[in-house]
Amino acid sequence: MVQQIFFGFKLVTPLFIIMALGALFRRRQIIALSGFRDLNTLAYRLFLPANVFYSIATADRSELFHPVYSLILLVGIGMSYGFARLIAPRLTAQPAKQGVIIQAMVRGNFVIIGLSLLQIIYGPSGLDLAGITLLISMPLFNLTSILALDRTQARRSSGLAQLKKVLLNPFIIATMLGLSSFLIPLPELLMSPIELLARAAGTIAIFSLGGVLELRSLRSNQMLLNIVSLIRLFILPALAVLAAFLLKQTEQTAMTLMMFFGAPVAVLSHAMVLQLGGDEELSGQLILYTTILSLISYAFWIGLIRFLFI
Known about the structure:
Blueprint: H1 2-27, H2 33-57, H3 67-91, H4 95-106, H5 110-122, H6 130-150, H7 159-168, H8 170-180, H9 188-212, H10 222-246, H11 251-261, H12 267-276, H13 280-308
Helix pairs in contact: 1-5, 1-9, 1-13, 2-8, 2-9, 2-12, 3-4, 3-6, 3-10, 4-6, 4-10, 4-13, 5-11, 6-8, 6-12, 9-12, 10-11, 10-13, 11-13, 12-13
């Protein structure tokens, strides 16, 4: 168990160092807040979509057919979104916070943290289920995020306007292009620069996050942080692991489901809040809070899964 805690610490610590650098650059006024917001926009419209496209386009297609795993994933995401829509208005009356809470309960940092940890545990084979996971989750994540954050607007969008937002969202476009590359692969001349953009996405998003976060008033949202963290890091992965156990899935399948549903709130979610609207402070707090606590939760779940699936 101590070794697993050390694994988690090694993975998460670099995120905080990069975040801290962003905060330091802003505090020293090396980069102004407006500059960090511009950088965040760049990450949202270029680097992160490139990462989404590249992850899907390079997915292992031989591992794309897993009906039981896919069903657990689809049902889990749907239930997470439905439960979040139900509970968010009961936690706060502010629409700007409701949208952030809904997105946080659905969208985890699986790509940046979960996949890395799976690779450490299982080696290259730890990514066997990454392709099908991304193909199913990316479109649903983007759709649910847009629908959740739309409730922050003073006037709710019509159905047609919501559909337009979904179709024109950079991540939806990146997802569709990634899927289309299965039929029409891009030449290496184009894939190479996309790969470079994708590799830089996480670093730029985390650095800009450190520059835009205002974390002085953590206590103002303490109840929301505790409740969302409990659901995000313990209740959702518990249900996923239980489903895997009852359906007699392998240890690696259960571990992948846990990493997915028990991931801390996605860094990408903050970029979407800045672009689409929502409580920016709560969004940043949830990312930091759940990422810190994930050191404990990941260690607990890894030990439990290895015990249950011997």
